[in-house]
Amino acid sequence: MSTDPDLFRLETDRLVIRPFVRDDLDAIHPILNAAFGEESRADRQEWLDWAVINYAALARLRQPPYGDRAVGLKATDTLIGAVGLVPSFGPFDTLPYFRGRSTGSPTGLFTPQMGLFWVIGEPYHGHGYATEAARAVIDFAFTHLRLRRIVATTEYANSRSIAVMQRLGMDIQRNPEPTPLWFQVIGILDNPAVSQNAM
């Protein structure tokens, strides 16, 4: 696994996925506020400073390149959202996908998975940008990081994110328990090499 942060600069037909820089605050602040609720500019600046420092810190520690990357339009260099890899920590063994791969009973205990995150600004919804950016990150994770599987989580009401999961070919699972609230719908995608090796 290569942890070089410069490798995690991706291009698709329409998008550039790159590390955030501190000058991105004005563009990303309203996008994140609209998607996740209001935060002060100072709090968002603190998050952005941490994100920028985190790229090099994780690489030095030879850790996976967790964190958000900026999503920009290639044609105009306009920042339209974020995508990235995050630690996803939840009761995965309660899901049918994992129960079918385990010989033990579900414990409901939390275990880690590699999570996929995306957010696209509202003016850019409906153009397939979230799917395009997420697919690029998945390809990077499976090819360069040699990741076994990737997951994404959302709420029942987030039909847009569920639709992205479906377009990505994820196995859509529903948490049989009422909590945690952010663990209601879970998309799971195995590295294609897993199914090829199973043949």
Summarize the structure.
This protein has helices at residues 25-36, 41-60, 96-99, 129-143, 159-167, 192-198; strands at residues 10-11, 15-19, 67-73, 79-90, 111-120, 149-154, 171-174, 185-190. By secondary structure, the protein is α+β, with helices and mostly antiparallel strands.
Task: Please tell me about this protein's structure.
It is a single chain. By secondary structure, this protein is α+β, with helices and mostly antiparallel strands. It has one domain (5-198): Aminopeptidase, CATH 3.40.630.30. Helices cover 34% and strands 26% of the residues. The protein is built from 6 helices and 8 strands; from the N terminus they run ββααββαβαβαββα. It has helices at residues 25-36, 41-60, 96-99, 129-143, 159-167, 192-198, and strands spanning 10-11, 15-19, 67-73, 79-90, 111-120, 149-154, 171-174, 185-190. The strands form 2 sheets. Strands 1-2-3-4-5 form a 5-stranded antiparallel β-sheet, sandwiched between helices. Strand 1 and strand 2 (15-19) form a beta hairpin. The longest helix is centred in the N-terminal third of the chain and has 20 residues, at 41-60.
